[in-house]
Amino acid sequence: MKIVVLGAGESGFGAAYLAKKKGMRVFVSDKGYIKEQYKQLLIDHDIEFEEGQHTEEKILSADWVVKSPGIPKKANIVAQIHQKGIRLSSEIEFASEFTNAKIIAITGSNGKTTTTSLIYHILKNNNMNVGLGGNIGKSFAKQVADENYDYYVLEVSSFQLDDIQNFRPYISLLLNLSQDHLDQYNYNYEEYALAKFRIAENQENDDFFIYNKDDQMSQKILKELDLRANKIPFSIKEKINFGGYVEQEEIVVKGTEDFKMKIKDLALMGSHNVANSLAASIAGKLLNISNESIRQSLMTFQAVEHRLEEVAVINGVKFINDSKATNVNATYYALESMKTPTIWIVGGVDKGNDYSEIEDLVRKKVKAVVCLGIDNSKIIAFFKDKVEQLYDTSSMEEAIEVSKSVAKEEDTVLLSPCCASFDLFKNYEDRGKIFKKTVLKK
């Protein structure tokens, strides 16, 4: 069988490596330039590759194409692959065909990385033989090739789910939905939401689907779809007979064995993280993990880098890195959890944002908006009459300098950009690291 892998990043190399290990003929094609570490790995494992171009003849002679989630589905080469009727899969689909491990897969517009890491922490803490992958950490395919795990906890994006055929998790979680990546879904929120729901489409009646009962779009689509999996809701607004909810400052999971824990004992703060902790606890109970072990894990978990990460307190001013907030909904959660007057750094590549969703929070919590991006006109136009101070900056150094000059003791400077990072930075991690470095400069 001839496998072509499009994109030679972490997931692309992993898929190529797994295919090679399974005795397939492999060709890797990257339209950009391949990072040195992955190029060396391809050479070391004798995998044929090209960079800086897509040779259509080679790609279209494949039996199976594995596509990096970073390649837009509207790309010309993708259209040609579909036209020829060649199977096109994401790395999670490809790798899942070569493992019998139970998969716990997590998606949602916000909180995926945190909840995926939290569930992995719960399983690992319980001495289970488990791998972590998908949109986080090491390539899932590379682990399938080299390891022999009984479980995988995978963070999966809508872009990965767009390219599945048989991917079937034992437990799937859909944490929430908000208007994100709409540029890739014809600016149609429901189309994007349906892509997320694909996480459960191949599940059977001995599998489990954990979903957010407070999420309106999830509720709407659940009524339209005929999912076979056992559906288990969680809510922070209402009591649930079977599932997870909040009552009297405790999270409660009702099931074959009930689980309770005081919210004040959770390692993660903020109402969105109460919801994430609830969802993770339900997954833990479905895997028969003891209450004591789950409680211990929820108390000891450390927050994910670039997600409401406290960087420093300088002259009484707290600096928080929430660079992973690349949409309005993620920033909503960040602003909601602010307890002191906030200088908010926002901006980047706008993905069709509707800032009215956070207007009230900004009025209540934000004393100054510091725009950071090449083109801040949309943000400036929306917020200019809604806050007393608004600044336009085009570098991290300038944004931090302005923020420090505006901030007073007991204020918070929050980087929560609402936008993608590609105008000034390589990615959100790069943006977050530069923020931290700049804040800590004397």
What can you tell me about this protein's structure?
The protein is an alpha/beta fold and 442 residues long. The protein folds into 3 domains: 2-89, Rossmann fold (3-Layer(aba) Sandwich), CATH 3.40.50; 93-300, UDP-N-acetylmuramoyl-L-alanine:D-glutamate ligase (3-Layer(aba) Sandwich), CATH 3.40.1190.10; 309-440, Alpha-Beta Complex (Protein-Tyrosine Phosphatase, Chain A), CATH 3.90.190. The protein is built from 17 helices and 20 strands. The protein has helices at residues 10-21, 36-44, 56-59, 76-83, 91-96, 112-125, 140-146, 158-162, 189-197, 216-224, 271-286, 291-300, 328-336, 359-365, 377-383, 396-406, 428-440, and strands at residues 2-6, 25-30, 48-51, 64-67, 87-89, 102-107, 130-134, 151-155, 171-174, 208-212, 230-234, 243-247, 250-254, 259-262, 309-314, 317-321, 342-346, 366-372, 389-393, 412-415. The strands form 4 sheets. Strands 7-8-6-9-10-11 form a 6-stranded parallel beta sheet, covered by helices on one side. A 6-stranded mixed beta sheet has the order 15-16-20-17-18-19, sandwiched between helices. Strands 3-2-1-4-5 form a 5-stranded parallel beta sheet, sandwiched between helices. Helix 2 (36-44) links the parallel strand 2 (25-30) and strand 3 (48-51). Helix 6 (112-125) crosses helix 11 (271-286) and helix 6 (112-125) crosses helix 12. The protein is globular. The chain starts with a strand and ends with a helix. The model has no long low-confidence stretch (mean pLDDT 95).
